[in-house]
Amino acid sequence: MPNVRFMSRRDVETHFPISPSHLISISDGEDDQALVIDARWTSVSRMFFLDGEYDEARIEMFGTRFKIAFQDYFSMAQADELKRLIVGLTSSGKDIVVNCEAGRSRSAAVARFIAETSNYKLLQDTPHANQTVLRLLRGDPILRAALRENTQPQREGDSQTGWFKWALTNLGLQKAHIDSDDQGTR
């Protein structure tokens, strides 16, 4: 069974893989990449996003400012791109190393997802895994609905945000709606 592990930028810069391994290197931006020697790795893939988390409440709190305030954070598009990359890398059956600056949040989330969805053994615990990264990689429908709703203009008169309404309806939490005209007759 192949292994997946995560490590810090400092560790990956001096790491010599024992067996042929792929590297997924995560950093804040192109000017902040880990300085790795590509020849040591079967392949090196780089992703750029800030280490931070958001959830449905934060999306709602920021409203229309969310897209600007969180533009450099992990997005649905990046999650979809990373999942495609992971499918390709795991099909090789070679070990995978994931790194980020501290080696405990973004990289832990990606490594955990790889172990959950592929026949890979995760070599470390992930108590600090970035929950936004993990939820988007898992395809969390509530978080994705909140993000989609945030890109659409709010209609006047909507008392509940779309993601909240979606969650209530699709999770069976919303009671049947009674029109105000019917209330007077019952």
Key features of this structure:
single chain; 186 residues; alpha/beta; Protein-Tyrosine Phosphatase, Chain A; 5-stranded parallel sheet; 9 helices; globular
In short:
The protein has 9 helices and 5 strands; from the N terminus they run βαββαααβαβαααα.
Description:
This protein has 186 residues and is an alpha/beta fold. The chain has one domain (3-140): Protein-Tyrosine Phosphatase, Chain A, CATH 3.90.190. It has nine helices and five strands; from the N terminus they run βαββαααβαβαααα. It has helices at residues 9-14, 56-62, 66-69, 76-90, 106-117, 131-138, 141-150, 162-170, 180-183, and strands at residues 3-8, 21-27, 43-48, 95-100, 121-122. A five-stranded parallel sheet has the order 3-2-4-1-5. Helix 5 runs parallel beside helix 6. It starts with a strand and ends with a helix. Residues 174-186 have low confidence and may be disordered.
Which regions contain 5 or more consecutive residues with pLDDT less than 50?
Answer: 174-186
* Large-scale geometry: globular
Largest sheet: 5 strands, parallel
What is the oligomeric state here? single chain
CATH class: Alpha Beta
Number of strands: 5
CA-CA gap between termini: 64 Å
Strand order of the largest sheet: 3-2-4-1-5
CATH architecture: Alpha-Beta Complex
Strand content: 5-15%
- Mean pLDDT, to the nearest integer, reads 86
As for the CATH topology, it is Protein-Tyrosine Phosphatase, Chain A
Number of domains: 1
- Give the structural class: alpha/beta
| Percent range of helical residues | 40-55%
State the helix count. 9
